[in-house]
Amino acid sequence: MKSMKRKFFPVLLTLLALLVCLFSLAGCGGNSILGKYVNSATSTDIYELKENDAWSHGETSGTYTYNEENGAITFMTGETQVANGTLKDGTLTINSKTYKQEANGNFFSKYGVFIILAVVVVLLIVWFVFSGRKNKSRQKEYVEQLEAIRPGNKVKSAGGLCGVVVEVCDDDTVIIETGSETAGKSYFKLAKESIYQTDAKGPTQIAREQAEAQKIAQRAAAAAPAEPAEPGKEEPAAEDTPEETPAENTPAEAPAEDVPEETENKEE
């Protein structure tokens, strides 16, 4: 289960980051015309475009229609047309007056890029942390495997030399045997650090395999259906039958012992 979590956690984290980025991009590219448009001549003359096609200009408000193709925008109050103009590249033009977009009302439009960068940075940090932990655990298991090498273990060097360990030396080296009876055997001395793969198992690997085997056994036991009792078969009743039989035969044995006494009385 832990290995499954380790495998799927980075995937889930990546999916979460992608969702955040998609929402950010959707916010950036949704309705980017929202916000306040301030007259460059007077800072008090402000048009504000809101969500749901709503607008306000001082005490006047209503709805608007916007054509993205030609940038034409029309302001309505109820069914009455109040003003019309053009809106392109953050510049609103109404009756020869120019309004510059000051602030965007969409949160993701303002901070979407920063959110994406922050998510990417956090993702990279978490990825490096988890990969570092994984590499440390692998290195620990590798060292334990090298220390657990004994004569009879199979090893494979980084250069591709395969053989069976016949002796473990004190200077962190091993002597391996290669070849066969027909082709002839050869002996090589290798440093433990040059061993790439071995069937020796360290304490951590043994504990992990035992835990996995125990979990598999528990799952198999939980998944196995209970054996139903056979109808008409009552084992307790069958066990009680031999105990009751001597009690039933006891009265029948008593008259059999009295028969000789009655015969003697008749002869007298």
Please indicate the count of domains.
3
Query: Which sheet architecture does the biggest sheet show?
Result: 8 strands, antiparallel, barrel
Outline: elongated
How much is the radius of gyration in Å? Answer: 45 Å
For this structure, the CATH topology of the largest domain is SH3 type barrels
Measured between the Cα atoms of the first and last residue, the distance is: 96 Å
Kindly provide the name of the CATH class of the largest domain. Answer: Mainly Beta
Please identify, by name, the CATH architecture of the largest domain.
Roll
Tell me the strand percentage band: 25-35%
Number of DSSP strands? Answer: 13
Uncertain segments are: 244-268
What is the average of the pLDDT values?
Answer: 78
Specify the structural class. alpha+beta
Helix content: 40-55%
Please count the helical segments.
Answer: 4
* Order of SSEs: HEEEEEEEEHEEEEEHH
Task: Sum up the structure in keywords.
single chain, 268 residues, alpha+beta, SH3 type barrels, 8-stranded antiparallel β-barrel, 5-stranded antiparallel β-sheet, 46% helix, disordered C terminus
Molecular structure report:
The protein has 268 residues and is α+β, with helices and mostly antiparallel strands. The chain folds into three domains: 52 residues; 75 residues, Uncharacterised protein family Atu4866 (Lipocalin), CATH 2.40.128; 82 residues, Roll (SH3 type barrels), CATH 2.30.30. 46% of the residues lie in helices and 29% in strands. The protein has four helices and 13 strands. Helix 1 packs antiparallel against helix 2. It is elongated and about 100 Å long.
